[in-house]
Recover the amino acids of this structure.
């Protein structure tokens, strides 16, 4: 008699292990593949592009990189909580990729060591390896290799957090990285002109913020992720005021490959840009402020 | 004795489940690379274990001025010989009614927002192709949606057992700056 509940529990456990439990699979005899509403109950995965992709694009349209725009590496010792460490790991890793892309060679090694230190503390030992560090040192005079090595380290850390199901940590790392990328790009804009390719790139980042906010949703019950997501939603509110123009694709692709869908342009005004940039700076300041600094109470 | 058996079963089930996930982690690397050597592997490539009949979406960002190649590999024995693949464009923006004016949330200056999803590529219109190359003329958020029908004649089913319905699927994404052709 005693065995029955255990056998039932065991059966239930094995059944539970076999499949995701919250999705309505195409039940019944007929399976309709890719129907109109298929995405309504899809299993969703989110991948953020690495900062390298953005920097490779904006590098061609901006001035030289400036190390003073990067978060001070010396502050790495002053982040105590795991949330701050995760956010600033994202910031520093983005700075490393930025320094590598813009060939600020004097800073590449410093930020690699900074990322390695913070990564080790977050349980990502090995992502920024000694072997790669030596590779990096050997290639300091070969700028093109630096961004490859830095990006590989960034990707290793990213995939490690995914593989080891460190969802909330990854969410914070990505949030810190997104803010730092925005800071580094917006600070390159000296005169706001809606037609400036760099300004247009800032406007386009609406889509990556959108993706990030959705990625973070699954971890929003984590207080730190929830708080950061709320801050990002405020930025999205600003983006939401910018008109989005969709037009039929008129031109053929320069490469001869097909173009999918319509052209989508996010229209940003000088005022909108300034509001967005100010909000990004305020949030970044909050992220990179060391935890041993007591902020004055707001009146 | 029973408690011990139960613990062993739980451990086995946990290890089995974790192993299934781990096995899939690098599955995207098994996708054949593009013939055009200028394509570089994009960091948004990913693999997952997917269930027959359940659509799986990989949400990514594509940048204006880049060419992309998306290719899908999967465990044919479990997921079937052909899978349905769609690329869905997801655009979030102020709602626009027929008269062209933006709609505000009642009592506020804030515009009403809508999420528009549009299928921009469907492999059922391209002989169930497992790969597609295209140029991004705008920076967009897209979802690569895959749905596996399962094998036509599941082997395990013949023996009266429930056929395995979760298999590995990998999506390889490659990109390069859009090259210009011609004179």
């Amino acid at each position: 008699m005693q065995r029955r509940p255990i056998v039932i529990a065991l059966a239930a456990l094995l059944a539970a292990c076999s499949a995701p439990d919250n999705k309505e699979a195409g039940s019944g005899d007929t399976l309709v593949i890719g129907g109109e509403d298929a995405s309504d109950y899809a299993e969703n995965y989110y991948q953020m592009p690495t900062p390298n992709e953005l920097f490779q694009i904006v590098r061609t349209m901006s001035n030289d990189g400036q190390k003073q725009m990067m978060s001070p590496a010396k502050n790495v010792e002053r982040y105590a909580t795991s949330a701050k460490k995760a956010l600033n790991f994202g910031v520093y890793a983005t700075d490393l990729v930025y320094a590598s892309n813009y060939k600020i060679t004097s800073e590449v090694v410093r930020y690699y060591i900074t990322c390695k230190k913070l990564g080790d503390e977050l349980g990502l030992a090995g992502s920024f390896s000694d072997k790669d560090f030596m590779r990096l040192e050997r290639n300091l005079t070969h700028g093109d290799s630096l961004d490859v090595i830095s990006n590989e380290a960034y990707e290793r850390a990213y995939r490690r957090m995914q593989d080891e199901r460190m969802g909330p940590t990854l969410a914070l790392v990505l949030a810190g990285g997104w803010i730092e990328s925005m800071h580094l790009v917006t600070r390159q804009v000296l005169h706001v002109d809606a037609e400036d390719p760099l300004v247009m790139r800032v406007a386009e980042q609406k889509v990556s913020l959108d993706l990030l906010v959705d990625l973070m949703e699954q971890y929003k019950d984590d207080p730190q992720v929830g708080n950061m997501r709320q801050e990002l939603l405020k930025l999205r509110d600003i983006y939401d005021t910018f008109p989005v123009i969709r037009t039929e694709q008129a031109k053929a692709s320069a490469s001869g490959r097909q173009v999918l869908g319509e052209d989508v342009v996010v229209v940003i005004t000088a005022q909108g840009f300034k509001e967005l940039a100010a909000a990004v700076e305020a949030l970044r300041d909050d992220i990179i402020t060391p935890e041993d600094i007591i902020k004055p109470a707001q009146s | 004795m029973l408690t011990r058996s139960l613990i062993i079963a739980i451990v086995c089930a946990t290890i089995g489940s974790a192993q299934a996930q781990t096995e899939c982690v690098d599955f995207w690397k098994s996708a054949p690379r593009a013939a055009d050597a200028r394509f570089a592997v994009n960091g948004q490539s990913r693999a997952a274990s997917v269930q027959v009949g359940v659509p799986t979406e990989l949400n990514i960002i594509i940048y204006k001025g880049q060419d992309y190649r998306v290719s899908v590999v999967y465990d044919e024995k479990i997921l079937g010989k052909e899978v349905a693949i769609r690329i869905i464009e997801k655009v979030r923006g102020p709602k626009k009614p027929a008269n062209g004016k933006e709609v505000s949330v009642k009592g506020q200056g804030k515009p009403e927002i809508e999420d528009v999803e549009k299928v921009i590529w469907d492999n059922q219109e391209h002989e169930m192709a497992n790969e597609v190359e295209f140029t991004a003329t705008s920076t967009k958020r897209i979802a690569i949606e895959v749905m596996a029908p399962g094998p036509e004649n599941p082997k395990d089913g013949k023996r009266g057992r429930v056929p395995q319905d979760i298999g590995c699927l990998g999506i390889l994404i490659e990109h390069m700056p859009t090259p210009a052709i011609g004179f």
User: Anything to note?
Assistant: Residues 249 and 262 of chain A are 5 Å apart (CA to CA). The longest helix of chain A spans residues 143-163. Confidence is low (pLDDT under 50) at residues 5-34 of chain A.
